[in-house]
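Reviewers asked in the last cycle whether our approach scales beyond single polypeptides. To address this, we selected a multi-component target totalling 339 residues and predicted its structure end to end. The input consisted of the following lines:
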Amino acid sequence: MRTVDWVDGRVRLIDQRALPWNFATVDYDDYRLLAQAVTEMVVRGAPAIGAAGAYGMALAARQAVGETARAMLPFIQQAAQTLIDARPTAVNLRWGVQAVLNTALTNADAPVAEFQQRLLNHAQQIADDDVRINQTMGAHGQTLIQDGITVLHHCNTGALAAVDWGTALGVVRSAHEAGKTFHVLLDETRPRLQGARLSAWELEQWGVSYDILPDTAAGHYMARGEINIVLVGADRVAANGDFANKIGTYQIAIMANYHGIPFYCVAPTSTYDAHAASGQDIPIEQRDPAEVTTPYGLELVPAHFKARNPAFDVTPHTLVTGYVTELGILTPPFTFLNS
Ligand code: MRU
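The resulting structure, written as structure tokens, was:
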């Protein structure tokens, strides 16, 4: 099933807080609750929250009250802002919401039922495109994987981070489906453990060989010559190629560079932000320190101990070997940003 879907007039999400222990879904008929679900990471991963934002706009169009579609616009514009504000770093969220908002603005003279349907159709299109784009990206990226190699991966970028298939782990899935035999080392990804909980769960199902690593072990295996390539996703890629991804990505990039290991960023063009000239223009989400001290309610240290919890860091383009997109494997400058 899809990570984000539209079922019987509601948005259905796989509840990623419960995995790998429980597989559960939650349905939303209120865009505000959906925005809260994005903030609380019921759904997470840049392409997945982009699709969730787009569907949130379809919900808002059904919640809006008005005689005409045009009269509903202020409510829908307010909903767009609420959805965009749910998480600040992944540009896909803004992209997905803005795309459906533009459809609302250009269809404001349509009859209400048709207006609502057009917004839903656009959200549905974004979700369908996401799957197709990820598979195309996987086909390009899998050429980087040869039999017998070991891939290092950070966070979760699989089907759960997108509508389906995934980005960096989508490349892994494509290589696996092409019959290649290789191993994947999964950074556990403190503090929310997306690598240990979600990526391992996905690779279990796909039948891909893997081991979970403590985040602190990557350098050790690089120094021993046991990592051949690093594949990571992105939450926002700036025009110069600097990109934000899950906290810890930057130090992996530095270590890969030191050891001469190829380091690839795998993200669809919807993750590229033409308005961000460099990584300095990317806002970094700061999350609740309790996720560090008391992850999933487990009191690792006394809850009043102080902690910092930046959710993302920025990797400079100078450390990146290439950028896998649905258009192919690129290097800056990214000409598609000008079209
Ligand atoms: O905080 P998260 O779990 O939403 O962060 C996710 C990541 O950093 C992923 O690497 C990124 O969104 C790319 S997912 C295809």
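The two ends are 34 Å apart (CA to CA). We regard this as preliminary and will revisit it once experimental data from Aim 1 are available.
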